Amino acid sequence: MPLAAKTGSDLQVDGEVSSALNDNFKQIGRIWQDWYGIKLGSVRGVDREPDGTDGSKGVGCFFSGGVDSFFTVLKNLEREQEENRLTHLLYVRGFDVDLDDRELDAMVAGRLLSAGEELGLPVIRASTNLRRLLK
After folding, report:
1. Are residues 17 and 78 in the same domain?
2. Distance between CA atoms of 99 and 44, rounded to whole angstroms?
3. What is the pLDDT, as a whole number, of residue 46?
4. Is 17 within a domain?
5. The pTM is what?
6. Are residues 67 and 120 in the same domain?
7. Cα–Cα distance, 87 to 29 (Å, whole number)
8. By residue range, what is the domain housing residue 16?
9. Helix orientation angle between 67-77 and 102-119, rounded to the nearest 10 degrees
10. In b/e form, how buried is each residue of 28-62, taking b as 16+ CB within 10 angstroms?
11. Terminus-to-terminus CA distance in the chain, angstroms?
12. pLDDT tens digits for 33-54?
């Protein structure tokens, strides 16, 4: 989505997309336009609802270990609704920690894994070069 916005391209989604995610595409597009002056093109292929579920379900939250992400996680865990309660935390190297800074990444990831353990939530680790692509 960010790359499509940066290049002025439309976003083509090949697959099933829930109506909630489809609505959030529009909201994210408005936020990016306000924050970065990037206008998202149209989002196509998002009119299909998933046919069902394979039995697995999860709710994730991007987690940097900062005040905002901790607040989001703790606020979510207070919810009485099981349906939307967090099941996973997502740490993406390349968002806050530069891809080349392996020492800082190891330190941050270690702290986030410890926090996830304390919270009873597994931390999924991923990497992205998106910042480099958007420069």
Report:
1. no
2. 31
3. 57
4. yes
5. 0.71
6. yes
7. 26
8. 2-44
9. 20
10. bbeebeeeeebebeebeebeeeeeeeeeeeeeeee
11. 15
12. 887 777 777 776 655 555 656 6
Total structural domains in the chain?
2
* Alpha-carbon dihedral sign for residues 20, 23, 27, 29: positive
The model's pLDDT over 77-113, given as tens digits with 9 standing for 90+, comes to: 988 777 778 999 999 998 889 999 999 999 999 999 9
For 133, other C-beta atoms within 10 Å of its C-beta total: 11
- Does 81 reside within a domain? yes
| Side chain identity at residue 40, one-letter code | L
CA angle 94, 117, 131 (to 5 degrees): 5
- What pLDDT digit, counting tens, does each position of 2-44 carry? 777 777 777 777 777 677 777 787 788 788 788 777 777 777 6
53: in domain: no
